[in-house]
Amino acid sequence: MHTVVIGVIGADVHAVGNKIIEHVLTEKGFDVVNIGVLSSQEDFINAAIETDAEAILVSSLYGHGEMDCKYFKENCVEAGLSHVKLYVGGNIVVGKQDFKEVEQRFKKMGFDRVYPPGADIEQAAEDLKGDLSK
Amino acid sequence: MSVQLLVDFGSTYTKLTAVDLEAEKLIGTSRAMTTIRTDVNEGFQVALEKLRKAHPEMGEIDAVSACSSAAGGLKMAAIGLVEELTAEAAKRACLGAGALVEHVFSHHLGKKEIKTLKQADIDIILLAGGTDGGNKECILHNAKQLAEAGLDVPIIVAGNKDAADEVAQIFQKTDIEHYIVDNVMPKLQKLHVEPAKDVIRQIFITKIIEGKGIKQAEEKIGEFIMPTPEAVLQAAELLSKGYEEMEGYGDLVVLDIGGATTDVHTIGEGVPKRAEVILKGLQEPFAKRTVEGDLGVRHSANALLSLVSPYEFRQYYENGEQEADEDYIEKSVKKRHEEIGYLPDTDEEREFDHALARICTDYSMSRHVGQVEVVYTPLGNMYYQTGKDLTDIQYVIGTGGILINAEDPKGILHEVEHKSSKKLELRPTDCDFLIDEQYIMHAMGLLAQKHPRLALKLMKRHLV
Description:
The structure holds 2 protein chains of 2 kinds. By secondary structure, chain A is α/β, with parallel strands linked by helices. Chain A has one domain (3-133): Cobalamin-binding domain (Rossmann fold, 3-Layer(aba) Sandwich), CATH 3.40.50. Helix content of chain A is 43%, strand content 19%. Chain A contains 6 helices and 5 strands, in the order E-H-E-H-E-H-H-E-H-E-H. Chain A starts with a strand and ends with a helix. By secondary structure, chain B is of the alpha/beta class. Chain B has 3 domains: 3-71 and 209-241 and 441-462, 2-Layer Sandwich (Nucleotidyltransferase, domain 5); 75-207, Rossmann fold (3-Layer(aba) Sandwich), CATH 3.40.50; 246-435, no CATH class. Chain B has helices at 40-54, 86-96, 111-119, 137-149, 161-172, 194-211, 218-221, 228-241, 301-304, 310-315, 326-338, 347-368, 401-405, 409-413, 441-447, 452-462, and strands spanning 3-9, 13-20, 25-33, 61-68, 75-79, 100-105, 124-127, 155-157, 178-180, 223-227, 242-243, 246-247, 252-257, 262-267, 277-280, 287-292, 371-377, 380-386, 395-399, 432-435. The model of chain B has no long low-confidence stretch (mean pLDDT 91). The A-B interface holds A 1, 3, 11-13, 31, 33, 35-38, 43, 46-47, 49-53, 62-63 and B 81-82, 84-86, 129-131, 133-137, 185, 187-188, 278, 280, 375-379, 382, 384.
Protein backbone atom coordinates (compact mmCIF):
# COMPACT_ATOMS: atom_id res chain seq x y z
CA MET A 1 0.00 0.00 0.00
CA HIS A 2 1.30 3.45 -0.89
CA THR A 3 1.48 5.98 1.93
CA VAL A 4 0.73 9.60 1.03
CA VAL A 5 0.66 12.73 3.18
CA ILE A 6 -2.09 15.27 2.47
CA GLY A 7 -2.87 18.62 4.04
CA VAL A 8 -3.71 22.29 3.52
CA ILE A 9 -0.69 24.55 3.59
CA GLY A 10 -0.18 27.92 5.23
CA ALA A 11 -2.75 30.07 7.00
CA ASP A 12 -5.50 28.32 5.08
CA VAL A 13 -8.42 26.74 6.90
CA HIS A 14 -10.39 25.24 4.00
CA ALA A 15 -11.21 21.83 5.42
CA VAL A 16 -13.88 20.48 3.08
CA GLY A 17 -11.74 19.73 0.04
CA ASN A 18 -9.16 18.22 2.33
CA LYS A 19 -11.70 15.74 3.68
CA ILE A 20 -12.85 14.86 0.15
CA ILE A 21 -9.28 14.14 -0.90
CA GLU A 22 -8.79 11.93 2.14
CA HIS A 23 -12.00 10.07 1.41
CA VAL A 24 -11.30 9.46 -2.27
CA LEU A 25 -7.67 8.45 -1.85
CA THR A 26 -8.52 6.07 0.98
CA GLU A 27 -11.20 4.50 -1.17
CA LYS A 28 -8.66 4.11 -3.96
CA GLY A 29 -6.47 2.06 -1.66
CA PHE A 30 -3.94 4.59 -0.45
CA ASP A 31 -2.73 4.79 3.14
CA VAL A 32 -3.63 8.44 3.71
CA VAL A 33 -1.92 10.49 6.42
CA ASN A 34 -3.97 13.66 6.71
CA ILE A 35 -2.28 16.46 8.63
CA GLY A 36 -5.26 18.78 8.11
CA VAL A 37 -5.48 22.53 7.72
CA LEU A 38 -3.03 25.26 8.80
CA SER A 39 -0.07 23.03 8.07
CA SER A 40 3.46 24.26 7.59
CA GLN A 41 6.03 22.79 5.23
CA GLU A 42 7.72 21.37 8.29
CA ASP A 43 4.53 19.55 9.31
CA PHE A 44 4.30 17.93 5.87
CA ILE A 45 7.96 16.96 5.91
CA ASN A 46 7.96 15.57 9.46
CA ALA A 47 4.87 13.51 8.71
CA ALA A 48 6.42 12.13 5.52
CA ILE A 49 9.61 11.15 7.35
CA GLU A 50 7.90 9.25 10.17
CA THR A 51 5.37 7.51 7.92
CA ASP A 52 7.84 6.83 5.11
CA ALA A 53 5.42 8.40 2.64
CA GLU A 54 5.97 8.18 -1.08
CA ALA A 55 4.13 11.35 -1.98
CA ILE A 56 3.06 14.66 -0.47
CA LEU A 57 -0.14 16.28 -1.76
CA VAL A 58 -0.36 19.95 -0.91
CA SER A 59 -3.70 21.76 -1.10
CA SER A 60 -4.24 25.50 -1.04
CA LEU A 61 -7.42 27.40 -1.70
CA TYR A 62 -6.87 30.89 -0.37
CA GLY A 63 -4.56 32.28 -3.03
CA HIS A 64 -1.28 32.42 -1.11
CA GLY A 65 -0.15 28.94 -2.13
CA GLU A 66 2.75 30.17 -4.17
CA MET A 67 4.32 31.90 -1.19
CA ASP A 68 3.62 29.01 1.13
CA CYS A 69 5.18 26.53 -1.30
CA LYS A 70 8.41 28.44 -1.80
CA TYR A 71 11.46 26.20 -1.28
CA PHE A 72 9.24 23.22 -0.44
CA LYS A 73 11.23 20.95 -2.75
CA GLU A 74 14.53 22.26 -1.41
CA ASN A 75 13.39 21.62 2.15
CA CYS A 76 12.34 18.09 1.20
CA VAL A 77 15.76 17.47 -0.26
CA GLU A 78 17.38 18.78 2.92
CA ALA A 79 15.25 16.41 4.98
CA GLY A 80 16.26 13.42 2.86
CA LEU A 81 12.98 13.26 0.98
CA SER A 82 14.20 13.93 -2.56
CA HIS A 83 12.51 10.67 -3.70
CA VAL A 84 9.09 11.80 -2.48
CA LYS A 85 6.63 12.92 -5.17
CA LEU A 86 5.25 16.41 -4.69
CA TYR A 87 1.77 17.33 -5.89
CA VAL A 88 0.00 20.63 -5.46
CA GLY A 89 -3.52 21.74 -6.31
CA GLY A 90 -6.33 24.24 -5.69
CA ASN A 91 -6.45 28.02 -6.07
CA ILE A 92 -2.73 28.15 -5.72
CA VAL A 93 -2.03 31.65 -7.01
CA VAL A 94 -3.41 35.14 -6.56
CA GLY A 95 -6.23 36.09 -8.92
CA LYS A 96 -6.99 34.53 -12.28
CA GLN A 97 -3.84 33.58 -14.12
CA ASP A 98 -3.18 31.41 -17.12
CA PHE A 99 -2.94 27.90 -15.70
CA LYS A 100 -0.27 26.80 -18.20
CA GLU A 101 2.04 29.47 -16.79
CA VAL A 102 1.15 28.62 -13.23
CA GLU A 103 1.86 24.96 -13.86
CA GLN A 104 5.24 25.81 -15.34
CA ARG A 105 6.12 27.96 -12.35
CA PHE A 106 5.27 25.27 -9.84
CA LYS A 107 7.05 22.60 -11.84
CA LYS A 108 10.10 24.81 -11.81
CA MET A 109 9.74 24.96 -8.05
CA GLY A 110 10.06 21.19 -7.97
CA PHE A 111 6.46 19.97 -7.93
CA ASP A 112 5.85 16.85 -10.00
CA ARG A 113 2.20 17.54 -10.71
CA VAL A 114 0.14 20.72 -10.52
CA TYR A 115 -3.68 20.77 -10.57
CA PRO A 116 -5.91 23.72 -11.47
CA PRO A 117 -8.97 24.87 -9.51
CA GLY A 118 -11.78 22.32 -9.72
CA ALA A 119 -9.50 19.48 -10.84
CA ASP A 120 -10.86 15.99 -10.50
CA ILE A 121 -9.36 14.19 -7.51
CA GLU A 122 -10.06 10.82 -9.17
CA GLN A 123 -7.74 11.85 -11.97
CA ALA A 124 -5.07 12.81 -9.48
CA ALA A 125 -5.46 9.41 -7.81
CA GLU A 126 -4.87 7.73 -11.18
CA ASP A 127 -1.79 9.90 -11.82
CA LEU A 128 -0.52 9.05 -8.36
CA LYS A 129 -0.91 5.34 -8.95
CA GLY A 130 0.99 5.67 -12.19
CA ASP A 131 3.78 7.79 -10.73
CA LEU A 132 4.29 5.58 -7.70
CA SER A 133 4.42 2.35 -9.64
CA LYS A 134 7.19 3.63 -11.87
CA MET B 1 -6.43 -1.63 63.54
CA SER B 2 -5.00 -2.63 60.20
CA VAL B 3 -1.95 -0.56 59.40
CA GLN B 4 -0.52 0.00 55.97
CA LEU B 5 2.83 1.69 55.78
CA LEU B 6 3.77 3.63 52.67
CA VAL B 7 7.41 4.43 52.13
CA ASP B 8 9.19 6.79 49.80
CA PHE B 9 12.94 6.40 49.52
CA GLY B 10 13.69 9.87 48.27
CA SER B 11 17.05 11.27 47.29
CA THR B 12 17.32 13.22 50.56
CA TYR B 13 14.67 11.83 52.87
CA THR B 14 13.04 8.50 53.50
CA LYS B 15 9.42 9.37 54.16
CA LEU B 16 6.91 7.18 55.93
CA THR B 17 3.14 7.49 55.89
CA ALA B 18 1.02 5.21 58.05
CA VAL B 19 -2.64 4.66 57.26
CA ASP B 20 -5.25 2.87 59.33
CA LEU B 21 -7.23 0.87 56.78
CA GLU B 22 -10.08 0.03 59.12
CA ALA B 23 -10.67 3.43 60.65
CA GLU B 24 -9.93 4.93 57.22
CA LYS B 25 -7.62 7.58 58.51
CA LEU B 26 -4.10 8.83 58.36
CA ILE B 27 -2.14 7.78 61.44
CA GLY B 28 0.89 9.92 60.85
CA THR B 29 4.01 10.62 58.86
CA SER B 30 7.72 10.78 59.63
CA ARG B 31 10.99 11.11 57.85
CA ALA B 32 14.70 10.48 58.22
CA MET B 33 17.74 10.97 56.02
CA THR B 34 18.03 8.36 53.27
CA THR B 35 21.01 6.14 53.98
CA ILE B 36 21.83 4.92 50.53
CA ARG B 37 25.60 4.77 50.98
CA THR B 38 25.46 2.26 53.83
CA ASP B 39 22.17 0.45 54.10
CA VAL B 40 18.84 2.03 53.25
CA ASN B 41 17.26 0.04 56.07
CA GLU B 42 19.02 2.27 58.61
CA GLY B 43 17.21 5.40 57.52
CA PHE B 44 14.00 3.47 57.26
CA GLN B 45 14.38 2.20 60.85
CA VAL B 46 15.09 5.68 62.18
CA ALA B 47 11.98 7.01 60.47
CA LEU B 48 9.92 4.08 61.73
CA GLU B 49 11.06 4.63 65.31
CA LYS B 50 10.12 8.28 65.02
CA LEU B 51 6.72 7.30 63.77
CA ARG B 52 6.18 4.81 66.57
CA LYS B 53 7.27 7.33 69.16
CA ALA B 54 4.87 9.96 67.87
CA HIS B 55 2.05 7.45 67.51
CA PRO B 56 2.39 4.80 70.21
CA GLU B 57 -1.16 3.73 69.49
CA MET B 58 -0.05 2.38 66.13
CA GLY B 59 -0.37 -1.40 66.08
CA GLU B 60 1.43 -4.03 64.05
CA ILE B 61 2.12 -3.12 60.48
CA ASP B 62 0.16 -5.35 58.15
CA ALA B 63 1.45 -4.28 54.79
CA VAL B 64 4.15 -2.07 53.39
CA SER B 65 4.66 -0.75 49.91
CA ALA B 66 7.29 1.62 48.67
CA CYS B 67 8.32 3.91 45.89
CA SER B 68 11.72 5.38 45.30
CA SER B 69 13.51 8.24 43.68
CA ALA B 70 16.78 7.71 45.53
CA ALA B 71 20.20 7.61 43.91
CA GLY B 72 19.17 10.01 41.20
CA GLY B 73 15.84 8.34 40.53
CA LEU B 74 15.20 6.57 37.27
CA LYS B 75 17.34 7.99 34.48
CA MET B 76 16.48 7.36 30.88
CA ALA B 77 17.44 8.22 27.33
CA ALA B 78 14.76 8.54 24.66
CA ILE B 79 15.50 7.98 20.97
CA GLY B 80 13.16 8.65 18.07
CA LEU B 81 13.10 9.73 14.45
CA VAL B 82 11.67 13.26 14.13
CA GLU B 83 12.34 15.46 17.14
CA GLU B 84 8.77 16.72 17.46
CA LEU B 85 7.16 13.34 16.76
CA THR B 86 8.54 9.93 17.80
CA ALA B 87 11.43 11.38 19.82
CA GLU B 88 8.92 13.53 21.73
CA ALA B 89 6.53 10.57 22.12
CA ALA B 90 9.35 8.46 23.55
CA LYS B 91 10.27 11.26 25.93
CA ARG B 92 6.69 11.54 27.14
CA ALA B 93 6.54 7.80 27.77
CA CYS B 94 9.64 8.08 29.98
CA LEU B 95 8.29 11.10 31.86
CA GLY B 96 4.92 9.44 32.38
CA ALA B 97 6.68 6.46 33.93
CA GLY B 98 8.38 8.74 36.43
CA ALA B 99 11.79 8.89 34.81
CA LEU B 100 14.21 11.73 34.46
CA VAL B 101 15.04 12.03 30.77
CA GLU B 102 18.74 12.72 30.57
CA HIS B 103 19.11 12.57 26.79
CA VAL B 104 16.79 12.77 23.81
CA PHE B 105 18.15 11.89 20.37
CA SER B 106 16.42 12.08 17.02
CA HIS B 107 17.24 10.75 13.54
CA HIS B 108 20.30 8.55 13.00
CA LEU B 109 22.59 7.92 15.94
CA GLY B 110 26.21 8.66 15.18
CA LYS B 111 29.46 8.04 17.02
CA LYS B 112 29.02 11.19 19.04
CA GLU B 113 25.63 10.21 20.41
CA ILE B 114 26.77 6.66 21.13
CA LYS B 115 29.72 8.06 23.05
CA THR B 116 27.38 10.27 25.05
CA LEU B 117 25.18 7.30 25.85
CA LYS B 118 28.18 5.23 26.92
CA GLN B 119 29.38 7.93 29.26
CA ALA B 120 25.96 8.80 30.61
CA ASP B 121 24.75 7.24 33.78
CA ILE B 122 21.40 6.00 32.52
CA ASP B 123 19.22 3.10 33.58
CA ILE B 124 17.06 2.39 30.54
CA ILE B 125 16.99 3.39 26.87
CA LEU B 126 13.68 3.77 25.07
CA LEU B 127 14.11 3.31 21.32
CA ALA B 128 11.33 4.52 19.03
CA GLY B 129 11.08 5.69 15.43
CA GLY B 130 8.56 5.52 12.61
CA THR B 131 4.80 5.13 12.70
CA ASP B 132 3.45 1.59 12.24
CA GLY B 133 4.05 0.87 8.58
CA GLY B 134 6.19 3.96 8.31
CA ASN B 135 9.92 4.49 8.40
CA LYS B 136 11.91 1.36 9.29
CA GLU B 137 15.33 2.33 8.13
CA CYS B 138 16.13 4.73 10.98
CA ILE B 139 15.19 2.47 13.89
CA LEU B 140 17.12 -0.41 12.30
CA HIS B 141 20.16 1.82 11.94
CA ASN B 142 19.87 2.97 15.54
CA ALA B 143 19.36 -0.56 16.83
CA LYS B 144 22.52 -1.67 15.02
CA GLN B 145 24.47 1.25 16.49
CA LEU B 146 23.25 0.44 19.99
CA ALA B 147 24.00 -3.26 19.53
CA GLU B 148 27.52 -2.54 18.34
CA ALA B 149 28.15 -0.13 21.20
CA GLY B 150 27.74 -2.99 23.65
CA LEU B 151 25.92 -0.93 26.24
CA ASP B 152 25.02 -2.61 29.47
CA VAL B 153 21.63 -0.95 29.68
CA PRO B 154 18.21 -2.48 29.06
CA ILE B 155 16.63 -1.26 25.84
CA ILE B 156 12.90 -0.97 25.30
CA VAL B 157 11.92 -0.96 21.64
CA ALA B 158 8.69 0.92 20.99
CA GLY B 159 8.87 1.92 17.34
CA ASN B 160 7.42 0.95 13.97
CA LYS B 161 5.90 -2.52 14.42
CA ASP B 162 7.02 -3.54 10.94
CA ALA B 163 10.62 -3.23 12.10
CA ALA B 164 10.14 -4.96 15.46
CA ASP B 165 11.20 -8.45 14.36
CA GLU B 166 14.33 -7.21 12.67
CA VAL B 167 15.24 -5.05 15.64
CA ALA B 168 14.74 -8.04 17.94
CA GLN B 169 17.07 -10.07 15.72
CA ILE B 170 19.73 -7.41 15.97
CA PHE B 171 19.62 -7.41 19.76
CA GLN B 172 19.34 -11.20 20.03
CA LYS B 173 22.79 -11.47 18.55
CA THR B 174 24.12 -9.55 21.55
CA ASP B 175 23.46 -10.09 25.23
CA ILE B 176 21.63 -6.78 25.53
CA GLU B 177 18.50 -7.04 27.59
CA HIS B 178 15.71 -5.88 25.33
CA TYR B 179 11.95 -5.65 25.32
CA ILE B 180 9.72 -5.20 22.30
CA VAL B 181 6.49 -3.30 23.00
CA ASP B 182 3.83 -1.37 21.08
CA ASN B 183 4.83 1.73 19.16
CA VAL B 184 4.72 4.95 21.22
CA MET B 185 3.35 6.71 18.13
CA PRO B 186 1.53 4.10 16.00
CA LYS B 187 -0.15 6.72 13.83
CA LEU B 188 1.02 10.21 13.09
CA GLN B 189 0.62 12.37 16.22
CA LYS B 190 -1.23 9.62 18.10
CA LEU B 191 0.37 8.88 21.42
CA HIS B 192 0.30 5.33 22.78
CA VAL B 193 2.65 5.18 25.74
CA GLU B 194 1.05 2.77 28.23
CA PRO B 195 2.77 -0.46 27.09
CA ALA B 196 6.18 1.23 27.15
CA LYS B 197 5.43 2.70 30.58
CA ASP B 198 4.48 -0.72 31.94
CA VAL B 199 7.79 -2.21 30.89
CA ILE B 200 9.71 0.74 32.31
CA ARG B 201 7.99 0.15 35.65
CA GLN B 202 8.76 -3.59 35.48
CA ILE B 203 12.44 -3.01 34.81
CA PHE B 204 12.52 -0.41 37.56
CA ILE B 205 11.06 -2.82 40.11
CA THR B 206 13.15 -5.83 39.15
CA LYS B 207 16.49 -4.37 38.19
CA ILE B 208 17.04 -0.76 38.91
CA ILE B 209 16.27 -0.55 42.57
CA GLU B 210 18.72 -3.40 43.01
CA GLY B 211 21.50 -1.55 41.26
CA LYS B 212 20.83 1.49 43.40
CA GLY B 213 21.08 -0.44 46.65
CA ILE B 214 17.46 -0.02 47.58
CA LYS B 215 16.48 -3.58 46.94
CA GLN B 216 18.01 -4.68 50.24
CA ALA B 217 15.09 -2.95 51.90
CA GLU B 218 12.68 -5.17 50.07
CA GLU B 219 13.00 -8.12 52.46
CA LYS B 220 11.90 -5.97 55.33
CA ILE B 221 9.34 -3.82 53.75
CA GLY B 222 7.70 -5.82 51.03
CA GLU B 223 7.19 -4.70 47.51
CA PHE B 224 8.44 -1.79 45.51
CA ILE B 225 5.85 -0.56 43.17
CA MET B 226 7.03 2.38 41.12
CA PRO B 227 9.23 5.43 40.89
CA THR B 228 8.02 8.22 43.19
CA PRO B 229 6.98 10.68 40.45
CA GLU B 230 4.73 8.06 38.94
CA ALA B 231 3.08 7.54 42.31
CA VAL B 232 2.34 11.27 42.44
CA LEU B 233 0.96 11.18 38.89
CA GLN B 234 -1.31 8.26 39.75
CA ALA B 235 -2.54 9.99 42.90
CA ALA B 236 -3.31 13.08 40.83
CA GLU B 237 -5.19 11.05 38.26
CA LEU B 238 -7.29 9.37 40.94
CA LEU B 239 -8.06 12.70 42.58
CA SER B 240 -9.11 14.12 39.24
CA LYS B 241 -11.26 11.25 38.00
CA GLY B 242 -12.74 10.06 41.29
CA TYR B 243 -13.54 6.46 42.07
CA GLU B 244 -16.85 4.75 41.40
CA GLU B 245 -19.54 6.91 43.06
CA MET B 246 -16.98 9.17 44.76
CA GLU B 247 -16.58 12.22 42.63
CA GLY B 248 -13.17 13.55 41.71
CA TYR B 249 -11.98 17.14 41.48
CA GLY B 250 -11.96 17.31 37.69
CA ASP B 251 -9.06 18.76 35.74
CA LEU B 252 -6.15 19.68 37.96
CA VAL B 253 -2.47 20.56 38.18
CA VAL B 254 0.01 19.21 40.72
CA LEU B 255 3.17 21.19 41.20
CA ASP B 256 6.01 19.50 43.05
CA ILE B 257 8.93 21.77 43.79
CA GLY B 258 11.94 19.82 44.95
CA GLY B 259 15.58 20.52 45.64
CA ALA B 260 16.83 19.22 42.30
CA THR B 261 13.79 19.33 40.01
CA THR B 262 10.36 20.81 39.64
CA ASP B 263 7.68 18.43 38.41
CA VAL B 264 4.42 19.59 36.90
CA HIS B 265 1.59 17.11 36.47
CA THR B 266 -1.65 17.96 34.72
CA ILE B 267 -4.68 15.76 34.50
CA GLY B 268 -7.09 16.75 31.75
CA GLU B 269 -7.54 16.78 28.00
CA GLY B 270 -6.55 20.43 27.67
CA VAL B 271 -8.26 20.74 24.30
CA PRO B 272 -8.95 24.17 22.75
CA LYS B 273 -11.83 26.06 24.36
CA ARG B 274 -12.65 28.29 21.40
CA ALA B 275 -13.75 27.51 17.85
CA GLU B 276 -11.05 29.60 16.18
CA VAL B 277 -8.28 27.66 17.86
CA ILE B 278 -6.81 24.71 16.01
CA LEU B 279 -4.85 22.07 17.87
CA LYS B 280 -1.48 21.18 16.38
CA GLY B 281 1.29 18.78 17.16
CA LEU B 282 1.65 15.49 18.94
CA GLN B 283 -1.29 14.33 21.05
CA GLU B 284 -1.00 15.23 24.72
CA PRO B 285 -1.20 12.51 27.36
CA PHE B 286 -4.30 12.81 29.58
CA ALA B 287 -2.07 12.57 32.63
CA LYS B 288 0.94 14.61 31.64
CA ARG B 289 4.15 15.10 33.59
CA THR B 290 7.04 17.36 32.79
CA VAL B 291 10.24 17.62 34.80
CA GLU B 292 12.55 20.58 34.86
CA GLY B 293 16.04 19.50 35.82
CA ASP B 294 17.28 23.07 36.05
CA LEU B 295 14.53 24.27 38.36
CA GLY B 296 14.98 23.41 42.00
CA VAL B 297 15.49 25.22 45.27
CA ARG B 298 18.65 23.44 46.44
CA HIS B 299 20.82 21.31 44.20
CA SER B 300 19.62 23.06 41.02
CA ALA B 301 19.40 26.53 42.54
CA ASN B 302 22.56 27.67 40.77
CA ALA B 303 21.03 26.81 37.40
CA LEU B 304 18.35 29.43 38.05
CA LEU B 305 20.96 32.14 37.70
CA SER B 306 21.34 31.40 34.03
CA LEU B 307 17.59 31.82 33.58
CA VAL B 308 16.91 35.06 35.42
CA SER B 309 18.86 38.26 35.76
CA PRO B 310 19.25 39.87 39.23
CA TYR B 311 16.64 42.42 38.17
CA GLU B 312 14.16 39.71 37.25
CA PHE B 313 15.04 37.80 40.39
CA ARG B 314 13.98 40.75 42.53
CA GLN B 315 10.58 40.77 40.86
CA TYR B 316 9.91 37.38 42.39
CA TYR B 317 10.24 38.72 45.90
CA GLU B 318 6.89 39.05 47.58
CA ASN B 319 7.24 42.75 48.20
CA GLY B 320 8.75 43.53 44.85
CA GLU B 321 11.81 45.66 45.50
CA GLN B 322 14.32 44.14 47.82
CA GLU B 323 17.85 45.04 48.53
CA ALA B 324 19.01 41.77 47.04
CA ASP B 325 21.98 42.67 44.87
CA GLU B 326 23.84 40.42 42.49
CA ASP B 327 26.45 39.31 45.02
CA TYR B 328 23.87 38.46 47.61
CA ILE B 329 21.84 36.42 45.15
CA GLU B 330 24.88 34.55 43.93
CA LYS B 331 26.10 33.81 47.43
CA SER B 332 22.71 32.61 48.62
CA VAL B 333 22.21 30.41 45.61
CA LYS B 334 25.64 28.86 45.98
CA LYS B 335 24.98 28.05 49.62
CA ARG B 336 21.84 26.14 48.68
CA HIS B 337 23.50 24.34 45.81
CA GLU B 338 26.30 23.09 48.04
CA GLU B 339 24.29 22.32 51.12
CA ILE B 340 21.18 20.52 49.93
CA GLY B 341 19.86 19.92 53.45
CA TYR B 342 19.99 23.66 54.20
CA LEU B 343 17.09 25.04 56.22
CA PRO B 344 16.68 28.83 56.34
CA ASP B 345 16.81 30.29 59.83
CA THR B 346 16.13 33.97 59.22
CA ASP B 347 13.24 35.79 57.58
CA GLU B 348 15.59 37.05 54.93
CA GLU B 349 16.70 33.54 54.01
CA ARG B 350 13.12 32.30 54.05
CA GLU B 351 12.10 35.06 51.71
CA PHE B 352 14.94 34.17 49.42
CA ASP B 353 13.73 30.55 49.37
CA HIS B 354 10.26 31.71 48.51
CA ALA B 355 11.57 33.82 45.65
CA LEU B 356 13.36 30.73 44.34
CA ALA B 357 10.15 28.72 44.65
CA ARG B 358 8.25 31.42 42.76
CA ILE B 359 10.76 31.27 39.92
CA CYS B 360 10.48 27.47 39.79
CA THR B 361 6.69 27.73 39.74
CA ASP B 362 6.56 30.36 37.03
CA TYR B 363 9.16 28.81 34.73
CA SER B 364 7.99 25.23 35.11
CA MET B 365 4.45 26.34 34.24
CA SER B 366 5.68 28.21 31.18
CA ARG B 367 7.35 25.07 29.91
CA HIS B 368 4.46 22.77 30.74
CA VAL B 369 1.46 24.73 29.61
CA GLY B 370 0.15 24.93 26.04
CA GLN B 371 0.63 28.03 23.92
CA VAL B 372 -1.31 29.74 21.21
CA GLU B 373 0.11 31.43 18.19
CA VAL B 374 -1.84 33.88 16.07
CA VAL B 375 -2.24 33.15 12.36
CA TYR B 376 -3.56 35.97 10.22
CA THR B 377 -5.80 34.38 7.61
CA PRO B 378 -8.08 35.95 5.00
CA LEU B 379 -10.95 34.75 7.21
CA GLY B 380 -9.64 36.73 10.17
CA ASN B 381 -7.41 35.75 13.05
CA MET B 382 -7.05 32.06 13.76
CA TYR B 383 -4.92 30.45 16.43
CA TYR B 384 -2.72 27.40 16.63
CA GLN B 385 -2.61 25.69 19.95
CA THR B 386 0.26 23.41 20.86
CA GLY B 387 0.14 21.66 24.22
CA LYS B 388 -2.64 21.77 26.78
CA ASP B 389 -5.11 24.58 27.41
CA LEU B 390 -5.23 24.92 31.20
CA THR B 391 -7.30 28.11 31.37
CA ASP B 392 -10.30 26.26 32.85
CA ILE B 393 -8.36 24.20 35.36
CA GLN B 394 -10.18 23.93 38.68
CA TYR B 395 -7.47 23.07 41.18
CA VAL B 396 -3.76 23.63 41.49
CA ILE B 397 -2.18 21.47 44.17
CA GLY B 398 1.21 22.22 45.64
CA THR B 399 3.52 19.61 47.14
CA GLY B 400 7.21 19.30 48.00
CA GLY B 401 9.12 20.49 51.07
CA ILE B 402 9.47 24.14 50.21
CA LEU B 403 5.76 24.68 49.59
CA ILE B 404 4.63 22.62 52.55
CA ASN B 405 6.87 24.51 54.93
CA ALA B 406 6.21 27.97 53.52
CA GLU B 407 4.09 30.39 55.50
CA ASP B 408 2.09 31.39 52.48
CA PRO B 409 2.37 28.49 50.02
CA LYS B 410 -0.67 29.63 48.07
CA GLY B 411 1.06 32.94 47.44
CA ILE B 412 3.83 31.02 45.72
CA LEU B 413 1.35 28.96 43.70
CA HIS B 414 -0.25 32.13 42.35
CA GLU B 415 2.71 32.22 39.96
CA VAL B 416 1.04 29.54 37.84
CA GLU B 417 -1.75 31.92 36.89
CA HIS B 418 -2.28 33.89 33.73
CA LYS B 419 0.17 36.77 33.32
CA SER B 420 -0.09 39.76 31.07
CA SER B 421 3.58 39.34 30.18
CA LYS B 422 2.94 35.77 29.05
CA LYS B 423 -0.29 36.28 27.14
CA LEU B 424 0.11 33.45 24.68
CA GLU B 425 0.50 30.83 27.41
CA LEU B 426 -2.76 29.04 28.24
CA ARG B 427 -2.31 29.25 32.01
CA PRO B 428 -4.98 28.75 34.66
CA THR B 429 -7.12 31.85 35.06
CA ASP B 430 -9.39 31.23 38.01
CA CYS B 431 -8.40 28.26 40.11
CA ASP B 432 -8.38 27.17 43.73
CA PHE B 433 -5.14 26.29 45.46
CA LEU B 434 -4.65 23.28 47.67
CA ILE B 435 -1.57 22.31 49.66
CA ASP B 436 -0.42 18.79 50.39
CA GLU B 437 0.27 19.79 54.00
CA GLN B 438 0.94 16.28 55.26
CA TYR B 439 3.13 15.47 52.26
CA ILE B 440 1.13 12.38 51.35
CA MET B 441 0.53 12.62 47.58
CA HIS B 442 3.11 9.98 46.65
CA ALA B 443 1.91 7.73 49.50
CA MET B 444 -1.64 8.03 48.21
CA GLY B 445 -0.47 6.94 44.77
CA LEU B 446 0.91 3.79 46.42
CA LEU B 447 -2.16 3.26 48.57
CA ALA B 448 -4.37 3.65 45.51
CA GLN B 449 -2.97 0.44 44.00
CA LYS B 450 -5.11 -1.63 46.36
CA HIS B 451 -7.28 0.89 48.18
CA PRO B 452 -8.23 3.59 45.69
CA ARG B 453 -11.35 4.61 47.58
CA LEU B 454 -9.44 5.25 50.79
CA ALA B 455 -6.63 7.03 48.98
CA LEU B 456 -9.15 9.36 47.37
CA LYS B 457 -10.91 9.96 50.67
CA LEU B 458 -7.66 10.81 52.45
CA MET B 459 -6.54 13.16 49.69
CA LYS B 460 -9.85 14.98 49.81
CA ARG B 461 -9.45 15.31 53.56
CA HIS B 462 -5.81 16.29 53.75
CA LEU B 463 -5.22 18.45 50.69
CA VAL B 464 -6.30 21.80 52.00
